């Protein structure tokens, strides 16, 4: 697979972040920063995004670096909203959206890298333009839209009951 030590560390931390997010989605219907799975997602995604800045097969800034910076911004704003806007129920909408959107953006390089590397020697895809990658990302986008609607409705019910 040809991964550097930083690449291996980045991958392991990233997989843990994704698993934590999925568990949080299943348990809470969102990435909940007050729960251990949400905290793991936040910190491991932060580390994964920071290490992504040190990974590149080309010199200079590339789209992967921009994506990593955007994810850092999204999770940082969500963390701020969670920590500083406790009594503001409207802030929960943005917090939920930013965390879910950061997860969606994380799936772009995850799907691309996984499908272009696994199984070793006979990868599922051959480059980022492969139709399998596009179809998979489309399914993930659809799930994101459905999940965002679900989160919005759930948060609205929570806000009305408080």
Automatic annotation (TrEMBL):
Keywords: Membrane, Transmembrane, Transmembrane helix
Transmembrane segments: 6-28, 40-58, 64-81, 93-112, 132-152
Domain of life: Bacteria
Protein name in the entry: Transmembrane protein
Organism: Chitinophaga eiseniae
